Amino acid sequence: MKSTNDINLQEKDCSLEAREEIQEEEVTETAETQLNTENMNDDKKSQTYSPNKQVNYGYIKYVSLAILTIQNAALGLSMRYARIRDVEMFYSTAAVLMAEVLKLAICIVLVLNESGNVSKGARTMYTTVILNFKDTLRVCVPSFLYVIQNNLLYVSASNLDAATYQVTYQLKLLTTAFFAVIVLKRRLKKWQWCALGLLVAGVALVQLSSTGKSTGSTATNAPKQSKILGFGAALAACFISGFAGIYFEKVLKESDISVWMRNVQLSLASLPFGIITHVINNGTMTNLLKGFDGFVWYLVVLQAAGGLIVAVVVKYADNILKGFATSVAIVISCVVSIFIFDFHLSVQFSLGTILVIGSIFLYGYVPKKPETRTSLSV
Among 221, 253, 327, 378, who pairs with 357 as Cys (CB 3.0-4.6 Å)? Predict the structure, then answer.
């Protein structure tokens, strides 16, 4: 017979073997669970970073850039054509006012969509625009400036051909950089200063290639054109655009209010300034829509949609691609002007345009950061 000690030892051995088997089973189950979890994570990652997602993102980016290119080129060409047509001339101040009304309506719809429902969006707009009245007053500065700028652009488009207007208006890059350094205390890189120098040289060549006064316009009821007046209006619009843009950017960064809500404030504050400007220029609000036909309404929609398109491009594209869109718009304006407006492309104008396009790319250039090498990297 076995002794009690032998039986106890056998029981201990059996219990140890059972524990080891249980531990081995637990380890196996844990490993299988981890493997299944990793496989599930891999599946999720493959779904998250699928090529279709990247294609959709690229689709939005390049479609928005194409729309911006067409809008930039079409706006300059359309403004020029609208001011030289042999039809009853519309008030440019009325066109600016109607563009602000349309922009306000579009931004209200976007805010309501952003809020989720109409009642919540209405409460948000009431709180932001009415109750927070002091903040709304801050937006009155760029509102007033944008109304003046848009009216000056009509003066410039009335006195400059579409190609010269398009190239000259790129001086807003110079004025924006100037006010960014003064107001926001930004530091420009060496290549950005070089780009601004090229920009000034290019615009100077474009202006020198078309010095003097034009003999007149094709429209019998349009005022006589002056290239000096057109360039002065474009230059003033560039300075106003630069300061207003930097001021508005500063307001955006100092609060957590959405861009669309800020645009509601901007357009709403622009309405009284637009009305006052129209009354000062024309003496009355009667016959506001004189000369408004389908083409003028198309121009109003084009001008109102411009700022919204830029917002989409800024979200999905970078400065290089935005500069590419602007450059293509300049080329389109030059080519179309040759066929529609009997524009004569000179060597001097071409050289100036090339310098302007090059400066746009150079200013938006962002060098790649060098990759940090670790001790494990080969």
Answer: 327
